Amino acid sequence: MKRVLGIILGGGAGTRLYPLTKLRAKPAVPLAGKYRLIDIPVSNCINSEINKIYVLTQFNSTSLNRHISRAYPMSGLTDGFVEVLAAQQTPENPTWFQGTADAVRQYLWLFSELDVDEYVILSGDHLYRMDYSDFVRRHRDTNADITLSVVPMDESRASDFGLMKINDAGRVVDFSEKPKGDDLRAMQVDTQSLGLSAEKATKMPYIASMGIYVFKKEVLIDLLKSSPDSTDFGKEIIPASAGDYNVQAYLFDGYWEDIGTIKAFYESNLALTSQPAPAFTFYDNVAPIFTRSRYLPPTKILDCQVTESMISEGCMVKDCQIQRSILGVRSRVGAGSVIDNSLLMGADYYERRDERFELMTQGNIPIGIGSNTTVRGAIVDKNARIGNDVQIINKDRVEEANREDEGFMIRSGITVIVKNAVIPDGTII
User: Fold this and answer.
1) What domains does the chain contain, in order, with CATH numbers?
2) The pTM is what?
């Protein structure tokens, strides 16, 4: 795998994850209390022995740069690296990234200089654990020009994805974007030929693209240079190449979830607390998920009732109830409070005891959750200051609301407290 380059697409402005992307790039959004989204594809690369990795992004990349430089300082004795490449305007490329393919095209001058054989193109907002070395080996064994990683789908979900058909040799011969009715049934394939059991193949006769690709180096360069107006891999570059190139499908039959929306992000995070063990877990010795090392004290829990929850390092929780929730690093929860089915992202720093006391004597609110406060069905972004006797419960069952000037938004019925927000004592949301 030393002759493979990993290219992670950081995405655009991350509007589907707003307001979590208001002050950070999408790959830098915190995940599971102590990780960030970018840690998933980077860790998969490292565990697959792919140690040359670029991350392409163009919005709010400061925190992403900081995280990657602290989390993945590759040794100077190797040729490995993890680097962020931000969009830039040049005489040759006067515009920002126009799509996934255009992002790679604008840095093709850099990628083509590396002595590699294949490019692995990855997305920065998926939750899964995958050994890319098996993916690359399948690509080489079939002498493919392009290999797409696909997941099996049943009929109930298939129409939400871009589907493809393959022939008996596993070569992709047709694409269809979110087909329905007869067009959907026409996209059925024999997934048993890709490795599924006969029983599972009957239930899942469709294959959907994961947005993960392996390209031969020369093929990617030729495609991007010969199609200067094509800006997207999944919708333009790859469908147009199926007739002239050997495009193969590689079946991935593990857990995979697109967490690019607030609802999917919220549900995927809270699913990590499930018992018995959830479909995806961070507790894996063979293929761990890496992140930045923090030198934080142990979490202090005083007279609390905690059920089906995950509590990160450096937290202080006192005389409260925590139910099916995740608490990020340095979270603070006051006495008498209830955290229920919620994700608290924690804080970037501690306030000293004297600082907190001074804030409270001046009528201000320190970082964290105050006393006798209920947070239910919510995401609380970092450094939020939530006062005493607050009710964050979406009492009117609102599906969508933009109250950003008041420190919160509601997306798909989930209340999102924005980063650095201040929610005064007694507020009811």
Assistant:
1) 4-271 (3.90.550.10), 300-423 (2.160.10.10)
2) 0.93
